[in-house]
Amino acid sequence: MMISSTTNATNTTNATSTTQSQSAASTVGAAQTLNETDFLSLLTTELQNQDPLNPSDSSDMAAQMAQFASVEQLTNINTQLTNMVSSQSSMQNTMAAGLIGENVVATGDTVTLNGQASLNYTLQNNAAHVTVSIFNSSGALVNKQVLGSENAGANSYTWKGNDQNGNTLPSGQYTFAVSAVDSSGNAVTATPLTTGTVTGVTYSNNVTYLTLDNNEQIQLGDIQEILGGS
Question: Which of these three, 75, 105, 138, is where a domain ends?
């Protein structure tokens, strides 16, 4: 009779354990994510409803506790990284705001024509031939100049504001592109540069943009040189 009672109790315990474990698992499954709280809930449910005649293996217990510790550590690391990114973003925004009113040289292809304009660019290697193409606000080619050889580094071409036929063009915003080849005909990387005064700062999708007085928007990483205030 005692054996029967013990067996019934065991069966009841197993049924309860199964039901509660399934309930806990269902909760976790619904969230599709197992965090440390869910893991602890599953673990305590298992301990509370284990079969008294067949308790959980101590080695399994140690493994589960190690897994729980790993989950908790990963969660803490993720929190710390999130805080670090937030702090870095805040510092970046403060730095960007401090650049308002400063003249900068940055990666960009916009130039302001006011009589004439200086088109600045860098060459990765020495070039035998350099070609500068200038476009109006509609994207139409208005002038194209084939220059001679130039050395690697910073270079500049002074545009007198005329089109391909020598006609004077109106003042305003233009864009330009630079292509170059070496003495063997291989392409040389050319990077156009824009110069302007920072007039504002905008934030979009966690990215900080600086607005220049030529209406071009650049990122902090685009800045090549800070020339100082106007």
Answer: 75
**Cβ pair 229, 98 in contact under 8 A:** no
Query: What pLDDT digit, counting tens, does each position of 140-198 carry?
Result: 999 999 998 999 999 999 999 999 999 999 999 999 999 999 999 999 999 999 988 88
CA distance 33 to 24: 13
CA nearest neighbour of 132 among 119, 145, 113: 145
- Helices 2-31 and 36-48 cross at an angle (nearest 10°) of 170
Residues of the chain with pLDDT under 50: 1-21, 24-25, 27-31
Same domain, 147 and 205: yes
Does residue 216 come out as left (phi exceeding 0), alpha (psi in the -120 to 50 range) or beta?
beta
Domain that holds residue 222: 97-229
The contacts of residue 164 (CB under 8 Å, 6+ apart) are 141, 142, 143, 144
Is residue 161 within 8 Å of 115, Cβ to Cβ?
yes
Q: Which residues of 189-221 are buried (b: 16+ CB within 10 A; e: fewer)?
A: ebebbbbbbbeebeeeeeebbbbbebebebebe
